[in-house]
Write a structure and sequence with these properties.
Two copies of one chain form a homodimer. The first copy, chain A, is of the alpha/beta class. Chain A has a single domain (5-158, 188-225, 242-274), classed as TIM Barrel (Alpha-Beta Barrel), CATH 3.20.20.70. Helices cover 44% and strands 14% of the residues of chain A. Chain A has twelve helices and eight strands. Chain A has helices spanning 5-16, 27-32, 39-53, 65-68, 71-87, 102-112, 136-144, 161-164, 174-189, 231-237, 251-254, 260-277; strands at residues 20-23, 59-62, 91-98, 123-126, 148-154, 197-201, 219-221, 245-249. Chain A has an eight-stranded parallel barrel, surrounded by five helices. In chain A, helix 6 (102-112) links the parallel strand 3 (91-98) and strand 4 (123-126). In chain A, helix 6 runs parallel beside helix 7. The interface between A and B is large, with 60 and 60 residues.
């Protein structure tokens, strides 16, 4: 029996804290680090961040787009990143924001979920626009593999409200309805526990407050630090379920690189802050 | 000055008709064709379908998920497919359903849009959950490159209604609001013409009918034939703008393979039907 992602996160959280290190090798970053904006530079980026992350944080989150822009060589580098990080005991959330219907979702599961997947990750992000209930087979595979699907639910950008705050047939907003569906799936798949379906949920002050605890879910809270959200934002947004939050920082940590020691110090400081703020 | 995607589609439509051949090398298909479900089998799939498609249809639509499941080798094969198809004059819609905010969208544009992109396509599909207006920079690049963004707007699966039919602050449903935003972007980017932002729009009978013509957009209508939609569904759904429709069939054509001649016959017959049905 494979341990669930939630139980693996709970262990990592105790050992190293909840902080997620977002790995976003943008062209600007590769240039700033003097690596060159090409597949070789990307390879060196991976070496540097792995050296800094291992033993410093428990979770890393590579953003697929910054690897895809280097074509198949970038995906080869991402493959190596995933394998090396996981072999060192890091949990890996692959930020790919995929999402489709039917056999296409099966194909994405083949790519990312479970043993034998060429780009095996511990968790991936998905888009719900085609309906979370269109992902039932995907969800089942994720649960059996001890992985996690993180459903993009609430984003911090104002343009996102057009869809996320729209009101559906149930009288709930889209984001409320998603949380309810996530809660129902998790209750069915992992009764009494935190289930395999999580949510990407911005740690920003937006109305209304939603009932996060009843989703029985983990929450990926992106954009801590340089992208704008503070520790207080995180604490406030997730006040009812602090132990289920995975706060993610990218630029706040990478901007002090490429020196591995300075990045380790920054990650350790932010990690300690998040651990303290998210104590139940 | 690069020709717009819309003008290139108009030319292809006159020469070869509007039919899009969806290239979905699922594991079941690779097995049925006797190719083996691995990167080598995928390579042979590409050789066979290109031989059949060139000169038969004007547009092909590879589904990225079925290449991603073979890891970086699958992406290398997809790269070859894109380059060979485009060099033979086929328009290529890459069905990737990406979509993010800020510099992440820039990275996706780097991957797929314009000269020099490693996976250069003529059009790609995108998810709007984070807000179409969060994609303004992406949209501008697509317009300048003569490419097309096809925004997933209405899907045929019932689970999609939860989000797509939700009602936003404007009093419009999410899908209506998206069409309005697409129309506004197209009017600004290509006044008086069909603009670079299109929509993926299911050719199925769903209420309400929407005002498609005023989006000044092309429409990708997936799932013709084996996946359920008939010519009559297509004609009815797009009655106000038949010359802007790209009807796409995948299983209906691939299921008669791997014989290239039989697939050519099936594509020619369906292509003729679509051309006739979608005559203004």
């Amino acid at each position: 029996m494979t341990d669930s992602f939630a139980s693996r996160f709970a262990k990592v959280r105790l050992d190293q804290g909840p902080l997620v290190w977002g790995l976003d090798p943008s062209p600007a970053l590769l240039e700033a680090w003097g690596l060159g904006d090409d597949a070789d530079g990307l390879d060196r980026f991976v070496d540097i961040v792995l050296e800094a992350a291992i033993g410093t944080v428990g979770i890393v989150k590579p953003q697929s787009a910054f690897f895809e822009r280097h074509g198949w060589r970038g995906i080869r580098t991402l493959t190596r990143l995933l394998a090396e990080a996981r072999s060192e005991g890091l949990l890996v959330i692959l930020d790919v924001k995929r999402g489709d219907v039917g056999t296409t979702n099966d194909a994405y599961a083949d790519a990312f979920i479970g043993d034998g997947a060429p780009l095996q990750a511990d968790a991936i992000t998905v888009h719900p626009y085609l309906g979370l209930r269109a992902m039932d087979a995907f969800v089942g595979r994720v649960a059996r593999a001890g992985s996690c699907l993180l459903v993009v639910t609430r984003s911090s950008n104002p343009e996102g409200r057009t869809i996320q705050a729209a009101v559906g047939e149930s009288g709930r907003t889209v984001e409320e309805q998603l949380l309810a569906e996530i809660g129902a799936l998790n209750s069915a798949l992992a009764p009494g526990e935190i289930g395999p379906i999580g949510a990407v949920f911005a740690p920003t002050h937006l109305e209304p407050d939603l009932d996060l605890a009843s989703a029985h879910a983990l929450f990926l809270a992106p954009g801590i630090g340089a992208q704008g959200a503070t520790g207080q934002d995180v604490a406030r947004t997730f006040a009812t379920c602090p132990e289920r939050v995975m706060p993610s920082a990218s630029r706040a940590l990478l901007s002090v690189g490429p020196d591995a020691g300075r990045m380790r110090d920054a990650a350790a400081a932010l990690g300690a802050e998040m651990r303290q703020i998210l104590s139940p």
